[in-house]
User: Fold these one by one.
Assistant:
Number 1:
Amino acid sequence: MVVSDESADADDRWRSRVRASYDDVRVPLWRAIVAWSGSVDVADEAVAEAFAQLIRRGDEVRDPDAWVWRAAFRLAAGDLQRRRRASGRTVDLDRAGAVVGRVDRLPDDALDLVAALAQLSDQQRRCVALVDVAGHTAPTAAALLGTSAATVRVQLMRARRRLRALLAEPADGSDPSTPSDPADPEVTR
């Protein structure tokens, strides 16, 4: 009976670790995957499946938080690839069950950001999602991505520069540096 009690205690400790990981990681992970993939549905499925796999693996996983981050991004990438193959073309955010039209789950200004993020490279999107959205440091993000901290910092610099340019463009396509109000005294000088 001692073995059963020890086994039950180990199971309870594992469940507590998974629950703590879920409470700490779920929301920032979901946000990071939405930012990276542009899809609420992909994020929902990837996060849920990553935690389900974590529970199935049991205590063989040494660091549940790091494992879930890696697993969720891999699952999301696989889901996006399946959607692309099924559609026969690149994923259109409107058709892939993406954020557009799902404003009940994201703030309005997030839609512009998600659209701009979709124009970055995959690696830049992952770096932005991990560091700027989820709050990881460059070294932690590098460990999750399997690259160096210097690479993460370079990708962040390039991504932020590109995002600033994309988000500064007015929707009507006019030049943001040219004032549009002819009554403005600065324009007439």
Number 2:
Amino acid sequence: MVVLGELLQPSMNTSTLHILKYLTGQTKEYVNKSHAYVHVKDAAEAHVRVLEAPSAGGRRYVCAERTLHRGELCRMLAGLFPEYPIPTRYGNSQLLGVPSILKSESLLMLACFNQDS
């Protein structure tokens, strides 16, 4: 899970570094992996709502806007920032496989996440 959004501290956190390494050219190739992404405010709101929902007890919930393959992420970044050296190929052919898909359905099924809230 990669949580992105405004930084509260002056230094970079792990999630921000995950994106920054593609923008700076530090990473020349991306790996054949996927990550789930969520905005920090959405994750915070989900934590509060699940904490307050009696029916949520004892379970784990995924809060993710979407799951992106690293190649898809790099294509998006290249479209937004064409002046940066975003990688265009993956580097480790041994990691070929089906990317994992994380979904938020169980979180959205809780009454505290109805469409009116």
Number 3:
Amino acid sequence: MRIALVFTVAFLFFVACSSSDTLDPSMSLESLTGTEIVSRASDALAAVSTFRFTLSHDEGNTVLTNGIEVQKVTGTALMPDNYTLDADTLVAGFFVNTQVILIDQDTYMTNPITRIWQQLEPGTSPFGSFNPASLVANILAQIENPLSSSSTNQGEYVVTGKLPAVVLKSLTGGVDESAPDLDVRVTVDGDSFVPVGARITGRATSAEQGDLVRTVRLFEFNTAITIEPPI
């Protein structure tokens, strides 16, 4: 009886291990170079119609050229030029939450005091240059010496490399051209090849700290998203 029990346990253990090996998504990933992964990710991003995104920081804050510090942003994107933003910021040291809707050339923003929506004059939006799709597309287009590395998550590719600070102009509105190159780590879905994240280390403006770490995440691609004027 004891021998039979031991045999049964050993057999189940063997089956479990075999099943685990079979279901491991990373086993089916195609072997690709960093350049090949970046090329496919660029094509996949260009075909996306909608997505949701977040911008967060592990160290420091993104500082826009107008002096606003951005702590965290969540939002939606309806390609090519429609976005919603929910931004936690610091303005002159005071916390301000701002909601923004960009529809083509029109920008709407909540008043930081009354919370009432208002349409802004062209060129006056503090987030006028913010474009998450352009940001990620520019990262893929300008990453230097992309290297494929192992991922901690199964079913994903990871590419590391260097970026010139000018790549972040669509985020900050302007850059310090003397800033050193940025370190970047791009994560790409192994099935669809859409880029799902980018971790960027380094400053882009003179007001930012050198060890600033920004993380951009993209998710929920090609879902039903409607962006309309709030007023």
Number 4:
Amino acid sequence: MRRLIVLISILIFLVAGSVDLLNNVSNARSLARRNFDEYGLIRWGDEQARLDNFAIQLQNEPDAIGYIFVYDGNNVCEGEARARAVRARDYVVNHRGIAWNRVMWRYDGFIGQFLIALQPAPRTVEMGDPWLGPFASVPAVQHVIDKCDLRLKRIRNSKPGELN
């Protein structure tokens, strides 16, 4: 009788763990079907509005992590995608007041056109790598080379409230 109770307890524990694992996989799949927001090269003022909405969503989901996935493209300078991701994270953390450990950015590679994808997700959800991939065919990398120093300087020196 005692062995039967132990066996039933073990089975219940295993089934409960399997259900949690299946829910985690299901949550990741449903998140992958939609991004909270995504955008390409837009003005800083427009990007701030999108990041404001992202921060509001994170405030409404206090247990979520805010992921900023950045994709490199031929329409930006080398290093520009990463600089824009750092600027976006800094804005959400320093201007909108979201805790530093609740917002992260990740460079997810080259897809031909610059893209930022914003995605809040529960801490328990494992985010795929790359988030929007894998990509079947990726064009050759040919970054913009005109005025890159000026473009990167403008991104690094952007301030909240600026519209450029």
